[in-house]
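Amino Acid Chain and Its Fold in Token Form
===========================================
Purpose: to set a sequence beside its fold so the mapping can be learned.
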Amino acid sequence: MSFGTIFFIVLAVIVLFQLRNVLGRRTGNERPPFDPYTRTEKPREDAAAGGNVVTLPHRRLPDNAEAATPRQPYESIDLVAPVGTPLNTELRRIRDNDPAFDPKEFLEGAKIAYEMIVTAFADGDRKLLKNLLTPEVYQGFEQAIIDRESRGERMQSSFVGIDDATLVSAELKAREALVTVRIVAQMITAVVTPSGEVTDGDPETVVEVKDVWTFSRDTRSRDPNWKLAGTESEEG
């Protein structure tokens, strides 16, 4: 063995000895390498004592507390229509076929739909009307828009608000629910020619409008929306 070989062997032993002193030995108790994507949690003594189950705190009920009385299925209906009336009877039938039906929520939706429809009609928004009306009613609305456009007229309309919305009648035909609402609204409406002449209404006067609208919905459909199925103006 040459002197050079012996020298490199001795040098390697010295280097390994120095690394051992600097890095130390593995004893089995070393901390694991840090993983920045692993969330560390402080162990809880109660969890350790009871395994992996941690009981969440809960509100203690009084010893004399009674179980809450379940809501009656027709409670919301009886609040808007007297029991025994045809309206109450038909609303109950609709509720039987559509457990999610609530007359108060329906009225709120009807008021929103009313404003959207009269505004869309004034603006000639066919796309919006088609989504809110049944095909039969849409045809009538579209024809009125076509006639207005053919004369070059435009409708100026400003919706002020709804004074009252009341359920008038209801009916369940097979799977189709029909609910009629009487709506009293305030609005400003005028029809203006290309020359600026007002042919109908008054662009500066708020008028009271009374309409009776009927909305329909397939109770078996997954679509929760109702559509306007009939309109008429209340005389007087």
Q: What stands out?
A: The two ends are 125 Å apart (CA to CA). The helical segments are 3-23, 45-49, 75-78, 86-97, 103-123, 126-132, 135-150.
